[in-house]
Amino acid sequence: MATVYLDAVLEPPRSLSTRGLNRVMLILGVFSAVFGLGFLLVGAWPVVGFLGVEILALWLVFRWSFRAQTARTYVRVTADEVDVRKVDGWGRERRASMASHFTRVEFDRTATGPNALRLATSRSVYPLGEFLTPRERETFARRLMQAISDARHERHTQDTT
């Protein structure tokens, strides 16, 4: 069995738990019901429907956001290869496998967005850590560089023995 130098799971941060979402929606629902009742009593009944549609739209946006937050990126470094597996919030999966000897980490401190941290080979570039903060991205880049360096060193020492 090959030695694993890095086995990392990158995931987006969650700002609101499911329990928190339920509380927020309950509070907004109560406010909406109170204001809707007030509008209903003064004869502005169409407003009640719009308040309900607002709450429904907000709930749908939160659900979509929660789905996107289930995305994961798995990075595994061994002496032979670097495996990257990205799973989006809808379960679609993309895989990439590169020889560790020919893989390099490209990190641009000044860049923002998905191209700040990349794994590159001679033919392809794979962005990593799109949702990490700049500090987290830099820390992960250092860990990844060290893991690839250790993997190359093991491979090199195996070849010379």
Q: Would you write up a description of this structure?
A:
The protein has 161 residues and is of the alpha+beta class. The chain folds into two domains: 4-11 and 71-160, PH-domain like (Roll); 18-68. It is built from three helices and seven strands, in the order βααββββββα. It has helices spanning 18-41, 45-68, 134-160; strands spanning 4-10, 72-78, 81-87, 93-99, 104-107, 117-120, 125-127. The chain has a four-stranded antiparallel β-sheet, with helices on one face. The protein has a three-stranded antiparallel β-sheet with strand order 5-6-7, covered by helices on one side. Helix 1 (18-41) runs antiparallel to helix 2. It is rod-shaped. The two termini are 18 Å apart. The model has no long low-confidence stretch (mean pLDDT 88).
Mean pLDDT: 88
Largest sheet: 4 strands, antiparallel
Percent of residues in beta strands:
15-25%
Residues in helix, %: 40-55%
Order of helices and strands: EHHEEEEEEH
Number of strands: 7
Quickly give the structural class: alpha+beta
Rg over C-alpha atoms, rounded to the nearest angstrom: 24 Å
Question: Ranges with pLDDT <50 over ≥5 residues?
Answer: none
CATH architecture of the largest domain: Roll
Helical region count? 3
Main sheet: which strands, in order across? 1-2-3-4
User: How many structurally independent domains?
Assistant: 2
Under the CATH scheme, which class of the largest domain? Mainly Beta
CATH topology name of the largest domain: PH-domain like
The separation of the N and C termini measures 18 Å
The shape, in one word, is rod-shaped
